[in-house]
Here is the input.
Amino acid sequence: MANRLLKFSRILVRITRKIPLFSCRKSKKVYTQRQHVTVLGLMKYLRTDYRGVIETLDLMPEVRQAIGLNQLPHFTTIHKFLQRFNRYRFDRLLDQTVDLFKAGPCMLAIDGTGYSSTYSSEYYKVRIKQRRTFVLSIATVDTGNKFIVSQHSRKGMGENTWFKPLVSRAARLVDITHVLGDKAYDCEVNHEFVRQTIGARCIVPIRRKPVVNGYHRKQMERDFPENIYHRRSLVECVFSMLKRRFGSFLQSRSLAQQNREVGLLGVVFNVYRYVSMETCLFLWMISTGPSQRTISELKTY
Here is the structure.
């Protein structure tokens, strides 16, 4: 069984094949965009900074060989590449990682989480009465294999605005049977969109009001499926795994750079999740003998 870091690097190289080699025809053509993205992914995987990932790669000849780096770039080259790399390209890379799982019909859970945009400690923030700032990331998650299907980041609040765009994008990648969300997504428009446009069942609890309006909201209030809705908490499990493994704060200072960093984190987490499931499946097959099961059938890790 190959080293996990080496596996991670090879899969990251594989999913970047659709990125153009160079950003323009006048490029120096010393390093490719695919190599830059892979180095950025390794930076997040190793939880280091731009200078640290270059110093670490200097001690990893096998990883450099997998990436195709004959010589190492200066750490500022990686930073400048992230500044000019379009954030929506990370969305397309995320689509490539979804294809790794070959997921069948799935329950989709949607929720938001915040990333801290400052290095200050909580004690220091309280002492100087610093206002908390964070970048909001809204993501849809497959509750079976626990990977991110689609995501978007922005500054401040407003999760419900991105419900329809994220679910629509997820529907192009996976076969959705249910969409699970908390009370923040409760409105008749969302219920109608999921049922009529996506062809799935929308399970969102009703906000307690004296009068419940809307056909689908009234139906949800009468017959709320608690046995299915409890799987919504798995989106919190994914956020917990992501932050415990890769950290809950962003290194970038500008909002545009932070949005790119959140997009990169989604790609890195999905590749990390795939490698972890593949390793777990390999060890399970060794312990139980030959099996014809595929990684898409492995629902727990």
The two ends are 18 Å apart (CA to CA).
